Amino acid sequence: MTYDVVVIGSGPGGYVAAIRAAQLGQKTAIIERYNTLGGTCLNVGCIPSKALLDSSEHYHNAAEKFTQHGIDVKGLSVNMKQMVQRKNEVVDQTVKGLDFLMKKNKIDVFTGHGSFVSPTRIRIAKADGSTTEIEAARVIIATGSKPITPAVFQYDKKRVITSTEALQIDQVPKSMVVIGGGVIGLELGSVFARLGTKIDVVEFLDRIIPGMDTDCSKELTRSLKKLGMQFHLGHAVTGVQTKGKKVLVEVQKRDSEDKFTLEADYCLVAIGRRPYTDGLGLENAGVITDDKGRIEVDEHLQTNVKGIYAIGDVIKGAMLAHKAEEEGVFVAETIAGQKPHIDYNLIPGVVYTWPEVAGVGRTEEQLKAESIPYKTGKFPFKALGRARASMDVDGMVKVLAHATTDEILGVHMVGPRAADMIAEAVALMEFRASAEDAARMSHAHPTYTEAFREAALAATDNRAIHV
């Protein structure tokens, strides 16, 4: 069997690439080693974690806020098994939707482990031991990433776990240590914190979500501390031991001999992810990787081997589902002879805690490092009528604009529905709008997005109205 395009991996990057290639008239196949399509994101990542985040937030609101809203609830309790079941149902519905899309777009789906025999020939090893080989004029590698689990952490998938196993916990733990103050650790840590679990976060750096604007880090830290989460910043984990149903986590202060041990029911390892190219046979195709195992690509996302492309978590850049999607479309259109474009500066980053965190463009730290003159406008949600009405007063919106031209260079926010609100900033920045452009746009009242307008007003000659 010969195809115009073969995609290895069916996560957001892979399945989107396959659909776009098929839309453009390419005979397309997709290879997925697991029995369900969707990769990490749909099966054990973005979608199931958001399902649990929403469920835990409903419970937390019922326990902490309903009374103030005039809603009295008696006998409130967590049915964790039902919570996990609902999460599984959401995943199942989403995956079935992908099956439909493959059929709709006439994409052939092969289940098994794909690997290169040569630059144009792919072997698919099936679960029953049989193999199939297919030919491809073009190959798109979209095999994603796996959690980093150093040997010293004694990862056993039972008490020392990653996000994959955390999504299956069906009883609320009394305690959990989270190694890593990044997106995954904070999102899942906040799920269990809302349900009553004592959470200790150990982060080697001096702040959480280090890749985002410092003000966002400060705001989120304050909010998560209100949930009872404790943070050990500037600390390293030197060892993990499992003793029966408990985990002992040895922690040492950075640049110091000070040590202590945290005991918990679970230890969640969330220190990052690595490109997943295990058993892909890259050497048979002659594809080169860098010292971190990432596949090297050019400006067209083509590897050093003509006709082989790579997208998503296996190449450089943020490990984000929507970044992979953009790259999937980019490669499919490039193969079809079009001239697509991706502005990596305008791919937003989001943390789905509550309040949510979102940012796009340059951070204030980056502007300083690049010696770009800028001005800042901030607006706190506690000054917003809509936020007070919903009791979502934590956080702020920050607009960074060029000091001379007023062009918006970055927007960073911590607050309710920040994940949705950031799209307005992305759209404006795509058209190189100024802070004054944003400030003069009419925003419906009362809405959360008014905070963005007020921050833009603050960046425009300090003209914010409601603060």
Structure description:
The protein has 467 residues and is of the alpha/beta class. The protein has three domains: 2-147 and 274-344, FAD/NAD(P)-binding domain (3-Layer(bba) Sandwich), CATH 3.50.50; 151-271, FAD/NAD(P)-binding domain (3-Layer(bba) Sandwich); 355-459, Enolase-like, domain 1 (2-Layer Sandwich), CATH 3.30.390.30. Helices cover 32% and strands 26% of the residues. It has 14 helices and 22 strands. Strands 1, 2, 3, 4, 5, 6 and 17 form a seven-stranded mixed sheet that branches. A five-stranded parallel sheet has the order 8-15-9-10-11. The longest helix has 25 residues, at 80-104. It is globular and about 65 Å long. The mean pLDDT is 97.
State the CATH topology of the largest domain: FAD/NAD(P)-binding domain
Name of the CATH superfamily of the largest domain: FAD/NAD(P)-binding domain
Q: Give Rg in angstroms.
A: 23 Å
Helix percentage range: 25-40%
Strand content: 25-35%
Number of helices: 14
For the record, the CATH class of the largest domain is Alpha Beta
Domain module tally: 3
Task: For the record, give the distance between the C-alpha atoms at the N and C termini, rounded to a whole number.
Answer: 66 Å
- Main beta sheet: 7 strands, mixed
Tally of DSSP β-strands: 22
Uncertain runs are none
What is the arithmetic mean of pLDDT? 97
Q: Tell me, what's the shape?
A: globular
Provide a brief overview of the structure:
With about 475 residues, the protein is of the alpha/beta class. About 30% of the residues lie in helices and about 25% in strands.
